[in-house]
Amino acid sequence: MQGNRMKKIWVKQWLTSLGAALGTIALPLPAVALCPADLPAAVAEIAARPELTRARLGVQVETLTGDVIYSQEGDRFFVPASTLKLLTTAAVLTQLG
């Protein structure tokens, strides 16, 4: 009985942490004005960061009307890494306990 109670507490704490983490991701970032001609250099600068050495990067920038003004592998589909794993784990824990 004690183990089941501890498991429920752990799951609640884990889901609370997950919600807090996802909430910070969902916060809107400040808008930055950048000339379309400067986009390739800006993306190259970001992609050159050491922490992204083994990362695959796809970028597509569109206007509010849907016109594509910059694309670097923007038509490729990427599988999300850790975020998807967290949501899957939360769903499994919710369903299976």
Describe the structure in your own words:
- With 97 residues, the protein is mainly alpha-helical.
- It has one domain.
- The protein has 3 helices and 2 strands, in the order H-H-E-E-H.
- Strands 1-2 form a two-stranded antiparallel sheet.
- A hairpin with a 5-residue loop joins strand 1 and strand 2.
- The longest helix has 24 residues.
- It is elongated.
- 0% of the residues are buried.
Task: Break the fold down into its secondary structure elements and pairings.
Elements (H helix, E strand, L loop, with lengths): L1 H24 L13 H9 L11 E4 L5 E5 L9 H15 L1
Antiparallel strand pairs: 1-2
Main pleated-sheet profile: 2 strands, antiparallel
What number is the mean pLDDT? Answer: 77
Number of separate structural domains: 1
Q: How many DSSP H or I helices?
A: 3
Distance between the termini: 14 Å
Structural class: mainly alpha
Q: Could you say which overall geometry the principal axes of the C-alpha atoms support?
A: elongated
Which features characterize this protein?
3 helices, mainly alpha, 97 residues, single chain
Short description:
This protein is mostly helical and 97 residues long. It contains three helices and two strands, in the order ααββα.
